[in-house]
Write a structure and sequence with these properties.
With about 450 residues, the protein is α+β, with helices and mostly antiparallel strands. The strands form six sheets. The chain has a seven-stranded antiparallel beta sheet with strand order 3-2-4-1-10-9-11. A six-stranded antiparallel beta sheet has the order 5-6-7-8-12-13, with helices on one face. Strands 17-20-21-22 form a four-stranded parallel beta sheet, with helices on both faces.
Length: about 450
């Protein structure tokens, strides 16, 4: 769920990378970093924290050069050290190189063990470092060929951006699990980013999505770039990009995330059979689906839960203790609006159940009468190993309880989910998606 950005042929490369990372802060809040090449050397600044806490006009000014890559980090528990922050910058036979990665390599341990047995010394706990060592140990003559050969050893979901002294390399995995888009800057340079909302902020022109299995190579000072199509599988963009990860103003694989989420809300509304005074979205994740739900049933939508925007997402916090505390810090229900009302509460997903339980408890304390909880995705029954923080079955409430038991646990009067068919129809059933959280199809072998 990390964010990556790459910029080339721009005198404002570090600034554009900064603003792109700022726009994609929702994809990771634990650490951020930018590496910039001045044509001879690569300088990197990275630290734990959010983008605007790490960078300022002075240190951005020190990142001089026309090539930049950047990264916002999102990690699972126990892997949030500064040592694991990206980009990873090293000196190689090709001079300085820097690498950033969004996704998860499922054969990390297998490749890592083989490299260690061959004498490699690792400095981080990230799967990203595997690629650095694979490139270093390759016998190919060019960095391009070493990168291509090393990718053959990487299985999983990935979007890589790699900067050398005078080139920017970009690669997306053969299934296209994570999004990656190409844009044109106002000064003529190019930008690569995980989401198109990064382009909107800096007024870059969207060109196209990077294709699954595609490598792009940009050279400093050159207008044209090279596209190499590596072996491609049946593309499967992760459905969770539409459900939760992406910002609603992003376009993912040609589809408006906002419009898709509204359709998910409409699909929920079509099978809702109870009476309610109004619809209440969980801000901000449930707002788009709640709008679609309310519009379809022609009942009011009330923003009866106020979010404190100075508190980050509870789902991506690394420990359960922080998640529990942040629910109360983050969300406050309006007592006068909710008292004695029958309401429909809309959220995008239900993962562990602890957040939903706390929210419903707050709503009941605020005086709500009946609470119908509607979730704009199917039951999450399988852990995602391609980059989502659901590593075990034990953490997933729907993997261990029936829908009725989940309803009782969170203390809702009723609970409804989309089914898989309703989800894919909402996104668009003309293609396949990564749905492993719902159907257990671990398609990357």
């Amino acid at each position: 769920m990390c964010a990556v950005v790459g910029v080339i042929n721009s005198k404002n490369a570090s600034a554009y990378a900064y603003y792109a990372l700022f726009a994609m802060q929702h994809r990771g809040q634990e650490a951020s970093g930018i590496s910039v090449s001045d044509g001879k050397n690569i300088k990197t600044i990275k630290a734990k924290g959010e983008v605007n806490q790490i960078f300022n006009p002075d240190n951005l000014k020190s990142l001089e050069g026309e090539i930049a890559i950047g990264h916002n980090r999102y990690s699972t528990a126990g892997n949030s050290s500064l040592n694991d922050a990206q980009p990873i910058a090293v000196n190689s036979v090709f001079g300085d190189i820097a690498l950033a990665h969004n996704g998860n390599l499922v054969n990390k341990e297998e490749v890592r063990l083989k490299l260690i047995q061959d004498g490699t010394i690792f400095q981080t706990n990230t799967d990203t470092e595997n690629l650095i060592h694979l490139i270093a140990r390759s016998k190919k003559e060019s960095l391009k060929d070493r990168f291509i050969e090393s990718l053959q050893e990487c299985k999983g979901a990935y979007c890589f951006v790699l900067a050398s002294k005078d080139r920017l390399y970009v690669a997306r995995d053969p299934y296209g699990v994570r999004p990656l888009s190409l844009g044109r800057l106002k000064d003529g340079g190019y930008i690569i980013a995980s989401e198109t909302c990064a382009f909107d902020l800096i007024e870059a022109e969207f060109i196209r999505d990077v294709k699954p299995g595609e490598m792009l190579i940009f050279t400093q000072g050159q207008e044209e770039f090279q596209s190499i199509e590596l072996p491609c599988k049946n593309p499967r963009i992760c459905a969770f990009e539409y459900i939760y990860f992406a910002r609603p103003d992003s376009i993912v694989e040609g589809k408006s995330v906002y419009e898709v989420r509204k359709k998910m809300g409409e699909a929920l509304a079509k099978k809702f059979t109870y009476k309610a005074d109004f619809v209440v979205p969980i801000p901000d994740s449930g707002v788009s689906a709640a709008i679609g739900f309310a519009q379809y049933l022609k009942i009011p939508l009330e923003m009866a839960i106020v979010r404190n925007h100075y508190v980050g997402r509870t789902f991506i916090e690394p420990t359960q203790e922080l998640r529990n505390l942040k629910v109360k810090l983050k969300l406050n229900p309006m007592h006068k609006v909710l008292k004695n009302k029958d309401i429909v509460v809309i959220d995008d997903s239900l993962v562990r159940g602890t957040t939903s339980k706390k929210i419903i408890s707050l709503l009941r304390a605020a005086g709500a009468n009946k609470i119908h909880l509607a979730i704009a995705c199917p039951e999450i029954k399988f852990p995602d190993i391609y980059g989502i923080d659901t590593p075990t079955f034990e953490e997933l409430i729907s993997a261990n309880k029936s829908a009725k038991e989940v309803c009782e646990y969170v203390d809702a009067d009723t609970l409804s989910f989309l089914n898989i068919e309703e989800l894919t129809q909402s996104i668009g059933d003309e293609r396949e998606y990564s749905l492993l959280s719902f159907n257990g199809d671990y398609f990357i072998k």
